[in-house]
Amino acid sequence: MPGRYRHFKGGEYQVLLVARDAETEGQVVVYQALYGEKGHWVRPLGMFVEHVDRDGYSGPRFVKIDD
Questions:
Q1: Which long-range contacts (CB under 8 A, 24 or more apart) does 34-42 make?
Q2: Residue limits of the DUF1653 domain (predicted)?
Q3: N or C terminus: fewer CB in 10 A for the chain?
């Protein structure tokens, strides 16, 4: 799962790791923006890998762009 990804809106991110939420024990993805202030973000794994239909786009929320 770690690697470089492109968000469907165009931003690129580096996935650092998949962690477990201490309260829910659900898996979350920890990732960093590769632009601007390069902030760190957390999103539930299911949401990170989900299919989106928005503004004429239909496909994965994030697409891996390297191996």
A1: 34/4, 35/11, 40/16, 41/13
A2: 3-63
A3: C
Model pLDDT for residues 16-43, shown as the tens digit of each residue:
999 999 999 999 999 999 999 999 999 9
**Amino acid identity at 20:** R
Strands (DSSP E) found in the chain: 3-7, 12-20, 27-33, 40-44, 51-54, 57-60, 62-64
CB 26, CB 45: distance < 8 Å: yes
Which residue's structure tokens are 């496909």?
59
